[in-house]
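Study the following:
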Amino acid sequence: MILVEDEVLSPSAPGRMLVIACGAIARELLEVIRLNHLSHITVECLPGKLHNTPQDIAPRVEARLTAAAGRYDQVFVAYADCGTGGMLDRVLERHGVERIPGAHCYEFFLGGAEFSRIHEEEPGTFYLTDFLCRHFERFVIQGLKLDKFPQLTPQYFGNYRRLVYLAQTESRELVDLGRRAADYLGLDYQVRRTGYGDLESTLLHFAGTAV
């Protein structure tokens, strides 16, 4: 497997199964594949930074689907809706392809019912995953230009009350990075262990493997 910036590619393998995925879940996806010995799956990831421009996700996925047409027996898209407002689902319907259920990765890592519960408990919750803990400065601070205009921080985050780090792994380093992010934003901090959630169960279902 090769990591090139935000794009992760694994060589084609027997079975001709393709997963087109978000680069923000690349590590987790490849770990699920490794742990479950799914060596017959090929993975192509689009850059995680597309989440800053969600209107670009659907056309980029469609371009990959078009390029893959006729080359694989099965294709699956490892994205949730991810802010596309249904645009991604319309693309997938045209191509007859399924995706991970849910509105975003926070939901599919936690599971829909649990995400709804904790969101109702505190609607003013900002979420981080392993990926966002690692790249908080790049995607949040720099992405929102808070490094240049720190006075914008209250405008973006003034209605938030807590930061919840949804942890896919047991990493003390990431827990500490999440705490630093919460301190930067002036929010209460919680850690919830999710593992790989619906990402794993959905991928195993797609691959025809029992969970």
